[in-house]
Design goal:
By secondary structure, this protein is of the alpha+beta class. It has helices at 10-18, 63-70, 78-85, 108-111, 127-135, 138-142, and strands spanning 3-8, 23-26, 37-42, 48-61, 91-106, 121-123. It has six helices and six strands, in the order βαβββααβαβαα. Residues 139-155 have low confidence and may be disordered.
Length: 155
């Protein structure tokens, strides 16, 4: 299985966990397979891995196409979207499902000394970090859908 660590600003993390936001936008291509597990790192001031999700799909298109297809699920309005993407010719939309808040956030730098948060995203290969993350996500280990799983709606 592919594991990816993705940095997300705290307000957008909260929207992902609540189910209000189901699509994460990136200005650069994200080359990840459907089904990959995304570990969500909340950036400063939190600086913790707080949730996991499944990558349902990736779309790489012109900004107008991304907005038309996903605008109601990105958690920002069109003005904010346009300001974020700027003059990018292509934008990536990551559709996330099964967003699950960790049983306890992982303060990675204090618990895994070699940890460095990615600027945007990074593939995870560090066995120590993966083990620490998996230990905090009981529904990932058991495969059960428990109270920590946030149901998804298509609004």
């Amino acid at each position: 299985m592919t594991d990816i660590l993705m940095s997300v600003k705290p307000p957008y993390v909260d929207m992902l966990i609540s189910g209000f936001k189901t699509v994460e936008i990136r200005k650069r291509p994200v080359r990840a397979p459907a089904g990959a597990r995304i570990w969500i790192y909340a950036t400063s001031p939190r600086r913790q891995v707080v949730a996991s999700a499944r990558l349902e799909g990736v779309a790489l298109e012109a900004p107008d196409e991304i907005w038309h297809a996903f605008g109601d699920r990105v958690g920002i309005d069109r003005r904010e979207f346009d300001a974020y993407v700027g003059d990018a010719e292509l934008v990536t939309a990551l559709t996330l499902t099964e967003v699950t808040e960790l049983d306890a956030p992982l303060c990675a730098r204090s618990e895994v000394p070699a940890f460095r948060p990615p600027q945007s995203y990074a593939f995870l290969h560090d066995a120590e970090l993966l083990a620490a993350l998996e230990a905090r996500c009981s529904t990932e280990r058991s495969g059960d859908v428990g109270p920590a799983t946030i149901p998804r709606s298509n609004r």
